[in-house]
Backbone:
């Protein structure tokens, strides 16, 4: 977004898409359209003033480097505070009314981003499917009869459908990566601690990560740097000489169209000069056990001050994710955190000699909304654990992971997950950017910045 | 007919039983001398 009037144009495009599509998709829970228009006018006014000063000095007007996101409409997951808007966390009867932005929102606004509204989420970010019995389900822009994925459902669906150019999500077990994959957008779970989490309703402190959702890798990279309060050059799609491990046991969990798409992305990366080698990972069942115990104990602690009041208001499946944490006890929690360190050591040892690991983001295409179970290669599996199966085991490692769309299969997006060592975001984004480039070269697939979800009649990128 | 999915207490009990079983499967012996994760990890 650049030039005088560009902010108003971008915001009006997002508002137009929102007015047409949000009643169907349920991506936003709260909107501030007039506030967004006023912010756009302010942004364009500032750009016009800067341009006038430049001309007076005989210089050519140029974008303000202090506002790299000038006029960019964003959707903020409704567990992240935005001053003047309620934070409901998608709960039945829970809200706070912040007077200050979360640090991550303040940084994006200072860089010129404009908040359109608060995005849908699973109740208290506790879920992976994007459904919400209290606020209404978020639906997939490619097919509104299907799941968007969650819990950062609103930002992913908003970005995919043009209701925002980018979003702020959070990822504890896969809550950025899975909706990004199902909705065909880019999502980054950053190195834990890279992006501040103050002003964000916690799910599990030692697992939570705040990160961007965007239409393409370059955009996600830029937004991540603003979120992290740093400036870095945009990564380039260069993978020559990289050694990448392919998590074949997770490919075996995938339904065939997903496995086939991942295989095509792997071939592209090889053609571009990466060495891709099958990699056997440490015990992922154990990783999932550790994760579930840690998360349950921490979410119970986070909810302790309001649990009794909310107890009968939680959806049953959400209450079941919280209440056992009051029974498990400190020793089990700390034992799990000790095993987490062991698993991380084992994973780090497995990755020795590799630059990054490739895996599916989700083993399945977006399932129907009501699907309690899915069939993968003839085997019935519960939908929730299936959606989590490729993302959750890596969340305890504290390293980054990117989900990048690599094309459509059966009309639905497929996401490739690229994960690695703490603070290896730039390397992962190079891989993701290369894989993303393949999406426009394969017939029937997509290029994220310009694609138009087919079932909604969205006009223009 | 009401099933376990409609009964919040049953769901809590089922989840607790699963988590207790998972907890029993990660032994204290294996982590003797290993401190818990406390902050973001730097891979060793």
Residues:
């Amino acid at each position: 977004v650049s030039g005088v009037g560009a902010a108003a144009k971008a915001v009006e495009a997002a508002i137009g898409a929102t007015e047409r599509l949000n009643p169907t998709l349920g991506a936003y829970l709260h909107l501030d359209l007039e506030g967004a228009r006023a912010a756009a006018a302010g942004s364009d006014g500032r750009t016009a003033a800067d341009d006038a000063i430049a001309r007076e000095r005989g210089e050519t007007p140029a974008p303000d480097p202090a506002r790299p996101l000038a006029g960019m409409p964003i959707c903020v997951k409704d567990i992240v505070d935005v001053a003047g808007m309620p934070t409901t966390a998608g709960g039945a009867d829970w809200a706070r009314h912040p007077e200050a932005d979360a640090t991550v929102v303040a940084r994006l606004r200072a860089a010129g981003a404009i908040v359109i509204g608060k995005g849908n989420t699973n109740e208290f970010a506790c879920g992976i499917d994007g459904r919400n019995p209290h606020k209404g389900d978020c639906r997939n822009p490619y097919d509104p009869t299907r799941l968007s994925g969650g819990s950062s459902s609103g930002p992913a669906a908003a970005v995919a459908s043009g209701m925002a150019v980018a979003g702020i999500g959070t990822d504890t077990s896969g809550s950025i990566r899975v909706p990004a994959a199902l909705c065909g957008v880019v999502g980054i779970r950053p190195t834990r601690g890279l992006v501040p989490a103050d002003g964000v309703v916690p799910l599990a402190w030692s697992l939570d990560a705040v990160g961007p959702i965007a239409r393409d890798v370059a955009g996600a990279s830029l937004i991540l740097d603003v979120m992290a309060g740093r400036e870095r050059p945009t990564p380039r799609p260069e993978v020559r000489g990289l050694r990448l491990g392919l998590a074949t046991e997770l490919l075996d969990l995938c339904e065939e169209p997903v496995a086939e798409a991942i295989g095509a992305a792997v071939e592209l990366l090889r053609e571009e000069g990466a060495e891709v080698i099958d990699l056997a990972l440490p015990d992922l069942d154990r990783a999932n056990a550790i994760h579930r115990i840690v998360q349950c104990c921490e979410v119970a602690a986070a909810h302790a001050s309001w649990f009794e009041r909310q107890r009968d208001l939680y959806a049953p499946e959400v209450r079941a994710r919280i209440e056992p944490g009051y029974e498990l006890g400190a020793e089990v929690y700390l034992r799990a955190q000790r095993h987490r360190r062991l698993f991380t050591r084992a994973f780090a040892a497995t990755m020795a000699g590799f630059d990054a690991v490739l895996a599916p983001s989700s083993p399945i295409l977006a399932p129907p909304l009501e699907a309690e179970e899915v069939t993968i290669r003839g085997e019935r599996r519960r939908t929730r654990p299936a959606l989590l199966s490729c993302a959750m085991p890596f969340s305890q490692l504290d390293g980054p992971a990117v989900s990048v769309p690599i094309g459509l299969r059966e009309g639905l997006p497929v996401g490739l997950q690229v994960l690695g060592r703490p603070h290896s975001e730039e390397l992962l984004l190079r891989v993701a950017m290369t894989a993303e480039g393949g999406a426009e070269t394969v017939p029937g697939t997509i290029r994220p910045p310009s694609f138009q979800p087919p079932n909604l009649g969205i006009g223009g990128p | 007919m009401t099933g376990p999915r409609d009964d919040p207490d049953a769901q809590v009990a089922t989840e607790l039983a699963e988590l207790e079983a998972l907890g029993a499967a990660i032994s204290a012996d294996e982590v003797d001398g290993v401190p818990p994760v406390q902050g973001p990890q730097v891979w060793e």
About this structure: DSSP finds 15 helices and 15 strands in chain A. Chain A touches chain B through 40 residues (CB under 8 Å). Residues 441-461 of chain A have pLDDT under 50 and may be disordered.
